[in-house]
Amino acid sequence: MTRRLSVSVERFPISGAFTIARGSRTEAVVVVATVEEGEIRGRGECVPYARYGETVESVIALIEAQERAVADGLSSRDLLDRMKPGAARNAVDCALWDFEAKRSGQPVWEMLALDAPAPTTTAYTLSLGDPESMEAAARKAAYRPLLKVKLGGEGDPARIAAVRRGAPESRLIVDANEAWRPETIIENLAACTAAGVGLIEQPLPAGEDALLETIDRTIPICADESLHDRAGLDALARRYDAINIKLDKAGGLTEAVMLSAEAQSRGLAIMVGCMVGTSLAMAPAMLLASRAAYVDLDGPLLLARDREPGLHYEGSLVHPPTQALWG
């Protein structure tokens, strides 16, 4: 019997809208790779991201190009040499791991010699808006212990202060999505310090972040768009204190596990993040949570509906995936 690779596109409505510095959307469009042999089926989900030059069509084509290799017994390790980092490789990689777990009866975390996944607290994202709407959103989410605040550049000090008023007890992460500029970064850093922010994610555009080498700060700065996989670590020296590992950027769980180990060996803190997707995309990333100082796997919480079965969330506490979902 031969393994077969297939690909599908699914759409999930977002609850309201999800807005960041680069725009707003009302649905999550995900691509799912499936590896099957007889009754055994493994799945992996990815989210094509225009910021990295990806479209749904281009990701589908890259996945379909692996059909013969999968039929011939392609492994996750081999996949690293066959495909570049990105969403397509992530979907195939996670599908292969899920397939192997279901074939062997051994969970993926054991095969990768990782700690057993445990319930963990995830950040909850507040979309970009005017200070008044963000304060209202923060007040509504103030019971959550960790909030991730999307910022947009001009006017961010007012937004930061408004969120802190709305959620005086929550820990805060801010994510500028490359929207700050050299002439505003000092003012924005001061506003974050005044609000007791714990982490600042990607303040300056990737490729234009050398200024971070010279700026004194009391708040750790985390690379997101500036880092995809291990090949980019050398460029981060003296600029960042942490990295956001997303499986869609790294190109799968295989690379993400190695990236997390290499980053920790260099003294970088780990954040495990996600695109806006379903529980199927979050499940593999849960295996990295034990290595992370911050976990941001709230994608399903932002959707109007998740897939079934999905991850179990109790407020901001997310539980490990069941075998029926993944791994």
Automatic annotation (TrEMBL):
Source organism, top-level taxon: Bacteria
Active site: 150, 246
Domain Mandelate racemase/muconate lactonizing enzyme C-terminal: 131-222
Cofactor(s) this protein cannot do without: Mg(2+)
Residues that coordinate or bind Mg(2+): 175, 201, 224
CDD domains: L-Ala-DL-Glu_epimerase
Gene Ontology molecular-function annotations: metal ion binding; racemase and epimerase activity, acting on amino acids and derivatives
UniProt-listed InterPro entries: DgoD-like (IPR034593), Dipeptide_epimerase (IPR034603), Enolase-like_C_sf (IPR036849), Enolase-like_N (IPR029017), Enolase_C-like (IPR029065), Mandelate_racemase_C (IPR013342), Mandelate_racemase_N_dom (IPR013341)
A Pfam family: MR_MLE_N
Key words, A-Z: Isomerase, Magnesium, Metal-binding
Assigned EC number: 5.1.1.-
Main EC class the enzyme belongs to: isomerase
Textual note on the cofactor: Binds 1 Mg(2+) ion per subunit.
PANTHER family referenced in this protein's UniProt entry, alphabetically: D-GALACTONATE DEHYDRATASE-RELATED, ENOLASE SUPERFAMILY MEMBER DDB_G0284701
NCBIfam families on file: racemase_DgcA (NF042940)
Family in the record: Belongs to the mandelate racemase/muconate lactonizing enzyme family.
Protein name: Dipeptide epimerase
Biological source species: Methylobacterium brachythecii
